[in-house]
């Protein structure tokens, strides 16, 4: 089926309108998925507003897709019609470069973002390369799982890479990303400290699994944690008291950034050198990383906290997210 209905933004900061679009012929290694629901990520807002400078219009956004396979190309592997799958930030990669051949397909310089120059999941159907069409575990709560495909893997990956069950992990920002980070780190066995600018979220953060909660606006409280955090994951995109946060790191500790902070992060060399600390960042994850994250989520019954809206209310959903009212992820249910 090449002609589908989709919600299309004609230009930056424009409202979405329902339109018929032609997907063209299905490529040999691609998979076509009928969308059941799709999470709304802040990256969708950033691309709609062209905050990063590389958006392409007209645009069909949506990159936290849950749906069923309806067609596979003749060279596609690993999935079959009727199978429930997920598609995240990346819809394809070259599969031939060194990162791809090393299992780091998400670092491919020719990776195709699902919502930039490609039609995303706010539509009846969406397509992706078979390797990026991830089969879902049977025990996963499918209707709530969409945000795991982008936000979930974004916070899971640094925990999987740099933490141990005995680690002391800090999560900065208890929002769409951070609340999932707290859940993952707690399930992993870590001692979790949540940092949030909103005191109204203190109890919620504890409910997600945080053992300690600190105001990210209170530099004095942050300084009391000096040398106590092994891994500090920053999920927000705002300026912070970076010196105080780096000071919370234990020897060999790491500050890891997954929030798209647009301003430079000031780092004093001596604060890193003498305690052998590191500062790093990461995007989402490879197909295997995503599959592992979904398996972990299903095993520990981890789901994001969501609120559902019909996809026909997509403009209202974007307004709600931009206004900071989402608790904590919005999922749009297909109603074409």
What CATH first level of the largest domain would be assigned? Alpha Beta
Order of helices and strands: EEEHEEEHEEEHEHEHEHEHEHEHEHE
User: What's the CATH architecture name of the largest domain?
Assistant: Alpha-Beta Complex
Q: Considering DSSP H and I runs of 4 or more, what fraction of the residues is helical?
A: 10-25%
Instruction: Characterize the largest beta sheet: strand count, sense, and whether it forms a barrel.
Output: 7 strands, mixed
- Span from first to last CA? 15 Å
Provide the β-strand percentage band: 25-35%
Radius of gyration, in Å, reads 20 Å
CATH fold descriptor of the largest domain = Quinone Oxidoreductase, Chain A, domain 1
Nearest-integer average pLDDT: 97
The computed structural class is alpha/beta
Give the CA-based shape.
globular
Low-confidence stretches: none
Total helical segments: 10
Q: Structurally, how many domains make up the residues? A: 2
Give the number of DSSP strands: 17
- Identify the CATH homologous superfamily of the largest domain: Medium-chain alcohol dehydrogenases, catalytic domain
Quick take:
Helix content is 24%, strand content 28%.
Describe the structure.
This protein is an alpha/beta fold and 336 residues long. The chain folds into two domains: 197 residues, Medium-chain alcohol dehydrogenases, catalytic domain (Quinone Oxidoreductase, Chain A, domain 1); 130 residues, Rossmann fold (3-Layer(aba) Sandwich). It has ten helices and 17 strands. The strands form four sheets. Strands 3, 4, 5, 8, 9, 16 and 17 form a seven-stranded mixed beta sheet that branches. The chain has a six-stranded parallel beta sheet with strand order 12-11-10-13-14-15. The relative contact order is 0.15.
């Amino acid at each position: 089926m090449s002609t589908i209905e989709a919600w299309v933004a004609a230009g930056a900061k424009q409202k979405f309108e329902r339109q018929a679009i032609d997907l063209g012929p299905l490529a040999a290694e691609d998979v076509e998925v009928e969308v059941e629901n799709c999470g709304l990520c802040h990256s969708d807002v950033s691309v709609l507003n062209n905050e990063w400078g590389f958006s392409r219009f007209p645009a069909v956004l949506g990159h936290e897709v849950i749906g069923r396979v309806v067609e596979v190309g003749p060279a596609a592997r690993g999935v079959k019609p009727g199978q429930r799958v997920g598609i995240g930030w990346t819809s394809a990669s070259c599969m031939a470069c060194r990162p791809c051949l090393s299992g780091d397909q998400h670092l491919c310089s020719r990776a195709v973002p699902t919502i930039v120059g490609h039609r995303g999941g706010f539509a009846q159907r969406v397509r992706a390369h078979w390797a990026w069409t991830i089969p879902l575990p049977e025990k996963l709560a499918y209707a709530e799982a969409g945000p795991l495909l982008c936000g979930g893997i974004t916070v899971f990956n640094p925990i999987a890479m740099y933490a141990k069950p005995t680690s002391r992990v800090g999560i900065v920002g208890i929002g769409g990303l951070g609340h999932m980070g707290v859940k993952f780190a707690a399930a992993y066995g870590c001692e979790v400290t949540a940092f949030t600018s909103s005191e109204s979220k203190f109890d919620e953060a504890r409910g997600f699994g945080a053992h300690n909660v600190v105001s990210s606006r209170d530099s004095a409280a942050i300084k009391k944690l000096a040398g106590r955090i092994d891994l500090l994951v920053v999920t927000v995109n705002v300026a912070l008291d970076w010196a105080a946060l780096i000071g919370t790191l234990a020897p060999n500790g790491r500050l890891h950034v997954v929030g798209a902070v647009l301003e430079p992060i000031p780092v004093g060399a001596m604060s890193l050198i003498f305690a052998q600390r590191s500062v790093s960042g990461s995007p989402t994850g490879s197909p295997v990383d995503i599959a592992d994250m979904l398996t972990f989520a299903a095993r520990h019954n981890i789901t994001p906290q969501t609120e559902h809206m019909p996809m026909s209310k997509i403009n209202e959903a974007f307004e709600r997210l931009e206004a900071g009212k989402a608790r904590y992820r919005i999922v749009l249910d297909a109603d074409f």
